[in-house]
Amino acid sequence: MSSVKQQYVNASEADVLESIKQRWSPYRFESRPVEDGKIVCCLEAARWAASSFNDQPWSWIVARRQESEAFDAMVGCLLESNRAWASRAGVLMISVTRNTFRQNGKPNRVALHDLGQAAAHMALQATQLGLQIHQMAGINLSATKLQYDIPDGHQAQTAIAIGYPDFSKPESDFDRQMHNRETAPRTRLGLSEQVFSEKWGVSSGLVEA
User: Fold this and answer.
1) Cβ of 163: how many Cβ atoms within 10 Å?
2) Percent of the chain, pLDDT > 90?
3) Residue 55 and residue 102 in contact, taking contact as beta carbons nearer than 8 Å
4) Residue 203 burial by Cβ neighbours in a 10 Å radius (0-12, 13-18, 19+)
5) Which ranges in the chain belong to alpha helices (H)?
6) Where do the Nitroreductase domain residues begin and end (predicted)?
7) How do residues 155-172 score in pLDDT, each as one tens digit?
8) Does the pLDDT at position 5 exceed 90?
9) pLDDT digits (tens, 9 = 90+) for 170-203
10) Which CATH architecture has domain 25-167?
């Protein structure tokens, strides 16, 4: 199990898995590659996520840090606000969904739901391996489609940075800004605001405060 500094550990109100408590989204990564075996392990965890009809509508485009040309090309697909920090990660990925079911060609209404499950598996596996991932909506969709020749019927969705968190003392103004974002209080809505019974907005007795 990875060792995560206490200020990054999630304050769960229930006895959840340790990897859930220790998962977070860093903005500062150590500028070093991630071992291939660990990358494959994260992808394998995602592969075993549940999906509607076992359709597995997700794909991943992977760029490793040591492959500088491919890595720089993927950095170029990110929106400007993400490039400076994400370019330090050991691995970058683009997630892609297929819009229709393999078995019958009908629209897959839950493709994004299934991608989310796969990405969550990946995040928890990464945490267990001493890594962390940071997922981004901020990608240039048209540039990504062009760069990777993504076929019709498929849609690029998010970018994912994977790497070793940088716990060193921030020296530059940029690093201090990123460090402040990382260490800001972690908050989530209470279950009573999310779990309803009988009708919308009525908190379930299971989770009432």
Assistant:
1) 25
2) 85
3) yes
4) middle
5) 18-22, 36-47, 68-75, 80-86, 111-128, 141-148, 173-182
6) 20-164
7) 999 999 999 999 999 999
8) no
9) 999 999 999 999 988 888 899 899 999 999 999 9
10) 3-Layer(aba) Sandwich (3.40)
DSSP-assigned states of every residue in 91-127: EEEEEEEESB-TTT--B-TTHHHHHHHHHHHHHHHHH
Q: List the chain domain ranges.
A: 25-167
- Integer Cα distance of 73 and 79 in angstroms: 12
Q: Which two tokens stand for residue 25?
A: 């989204």
**Contact in structure between 75 and 86 (CB atoms under 8 Å):** yes
Mean pLDDT of the chain: 93
Q: Is the Cβ–Cβ distance between 108 and 164 less than 8 Å? A: no
Q: Which amino acid is at 97?
A: T
